[in-house]
Specification:
Blueprint: H1 2-19, H2 23-46, H3 53-56, H4 63-77, H5 80-88, H6 90-112, H7 117-140, H8 153-185, H9 188-191
Helix pairs in contact: 1-2, 2-6, 2-8, 4-6, 4-7, 5-6, 6-7, 7-8
């Protein structure tokens, strides 16, 4: 089962990264796959292994700390100057996409750790809110924030904002609700 998660996560990651050069929308699809789709699959694949960040770095891999790290990385890379840098320098694009994956993996690993169930729910719901907000800001901006994309930049940016709003908002919200369901189903004697 863990091998299936690993293969699915890596396949989706490769697919997303192949799209990253396709304008702002392609970039957003790649970034959402990295943090919200591939990262949870990879976190499930390595859960409880020596590669699991929640096991290796228990003080860093707490849900709220990991959510903060992810928020800073996601919002930071959407500053227009950094977005331009990643679009025009392949090395920075690799750094950007790798940082999205690492932040996503750290967050999903932290929230999946059994000792963090309640905090994991809160971290995923907070992440859902900030992803939705950033997606709305990008999608509803009255002018291109990323004008270096050339003709059609505003429409491309609007679609990218919708992708972020929908995928980011829904993935983290569904993850948070699924974890809340598991938390509520846990019997009191199992919690001890």
């Amino acid at each position: 089962m863990k091998r299936a998660y690993l293969l699915a996560g890596l396949t989706l990651l490769a697919f997303g990264w192949a799209l990253s050069g396709q304008g702002m929308t392609g970039h957003m699809v790649a970034h959402m796959i990295a943090v919200a789709v591939a990262a949870p699959l990879l976190a499930l694949a390595i859960q409880d292994s020596r590669l699991d960040p929640a096991r290796r770095w228990p003080r860093l891999a707490t849900p709220m700390a990991a959510a903060l790290v992810e928020a800073v990385i996601v919002w930071g890379w959407h500053v227009p100057a950094l977005r331009r840098l990643a679009d025009h320098a392949p090395l920075w694009l690799v750094v950007e996409q790798a940082s999205f994956l690492v932040a996503g993996l750290l967050l999903w690993s932290a929230v999946l750790a059994p000792r963090h169930r309640a905090a994991g729910v809160a971290a995923l719901l907070v992440t859902s809110m900030h992803m939705t907000l950033l997606g709305a800001l990008i999608g509803l901006a009255p002018r291109p924030l990323y004008s270096h994309h050339g003709a059609g930049a505003l429409q491309d940016q609007q679609i990218a904002g919708v992708v972020m709003l929908l995928v980011g908002g829904i993935a983290y919200l569904c993850g948070g609700l699924a974890m809340l369901g598991r938390l509520l189903q846990t019997r009191p004697e199992a919690r001890a």
